[in-house]
């Protein structure tokens, strides 16, 4: 990319760009509501995330444009001798930068952040329909070692 990508904690002013990225794919378009004004549920979620010291909503930006987002949740476990894990969720990049390495930089940033927080493991999930995403994460060293299950409520 011509402009340097930087990372920071998201602010409420970033929500419009974040929700736009979340809604900008086949799966996201079915479950997100990118409207003006944004539904209150996004603002409530943002406040819950940013008030929790074990959650970080991170944006990637180039100049004044938000071009990527990810949420990192840090969780203590009794297993692994009481170790901490980082879970990466909601990784998206703007269509304007797809294929230009922003997603790779987001994940590398999250891994570094997990190391800074003393985590012994970084985990993530991706929908089985996202075959390109699965290949992307595998190229970054992630291994499909477990079978994940979900129960919609």
UniProtKB/TrEMBL annotation:
<protein>
    <submittedName>
        <fullName>GNAT family N-acetyltransferase</fullName>
    </submittedName>
</protein>
<keyword id="KW-0808">Transferase</keyword>
<dbReference type="InterPro" id="IPR050832">
    <property type="entry name" value="Bact_Acetyltransf"/>
</dbReference>
<keyword id="KW-0012">Acyltransferase</keyword>
<dbReference type="InterPro" id="IPR000182">
    <property type="entry name" value="GNAT_dom"/>
</dbReference>
<dbReference type="InterPro" id="IPR016181">
    <property type="entry name" value="Acyl_CoA_acyltransferase"/>
</dbReference>
<feature type="domain" description="N-acetyltransferase">
    <location>
        <begin position="5"/>
        <end position="153"/>
    </location>
</feature>
<dbReference type="Pfam" id="PF00583">
    <property type="entry name" value="Acetyltransf_1"/>
</dbReference>
